[in-house]
User: Fold this.
Amino acid sequence: MSSFTGKTVVVLGATGVVGSGICRAFLDQGAFVVAVSRNAGRFDDLSKTLALKASDGFATAVGDFKDEASTGLAMAGIDRALAGRAIDHVISSQGFVKFGPPPTQSTSAQLNDALADGLTINFNAAKALLPGIKQRAATFTMVSGGLAHIPPPDPAMWMGTIKNAAVNAFTLGLAAETARDVVRVNTLCIHFGIAPIGGKQNQFGLPAERDSLGLAPAFLAIARGKQKGHVLCLNSWADVDALAKS
Ligand SMILES: NC(=O)c1ccc[n+]([C@@H]2O[C@H](COP(=O)([O-])OP(=O)(O)OC[C@H]3O[C@@H](n4cnc5c(N)ncnc54)[C@H](OP(=O)(O)O)[C@@H]3O)[C@@H](O)[C@H]2O)c1
Assistant:
């Protein structure tokens, strides 16, 4: 029996490269996983990707955290999927990176879209899910990327830099709010490419050393660890292994 047996984990962005690996990681530990997607049509593929077993505790919820109204609907769906279970861990791996013209050629609408698909969805998710777990030995973990810290290798990726930096900064805001609460808020900022489960390349077609199942030790370590209010940068797979041992 693992320390996650009987625990309940809500995964936002569950159909994604990172999110699907997170789902499988917690299922393998005996947790009950609620996978959230904006599109019910994606759950069949996710079930295949996860190679779901009869013994897996798994439920799905359709939800979009883009604005207040859709967040309310998403929460109703998550509550149905929880069927009375209390949430132990929330992992938000929603959104990816928007590409666009270099900064001075982009429109403010493009910038707002990039923030909507990174910062706003995490903001709405935190507003909806965090208050209910503040006084539990629970975690709320977001996912961002190393573009936050570097000049983008291609100017078309500058909005990814903004989005990831915004998620990292938002972590600090939530950390301040929850400093005296029991819940632990953190963000994993991943600085390298990750392949989808069973794959060998990331979304940019670049070879990836491991697939998203390889990130399992990092997410499990945060969920069972003591980290609170941190943006934890993973510079390499060696950092994943180190976090697992921390
Ligand atoms: N993959 C990598 O190599 C890599 C490396 C470093 C960091 N990261 C970070 O990891 C996080 C997740 O990346 P990923 O590779 O898993 O991305 P992904 O494969 O595109 O998955 C993200 C998921 O988020 C969901 N989503 C919900 N709201 C969204 C919105 N408004 N816009 C776009 N997607 C939305 C989508 O699921 P539905 O359509 O089903 O709702 C999508 O499957 C990101 O923060 C990314 O920067 C990824």
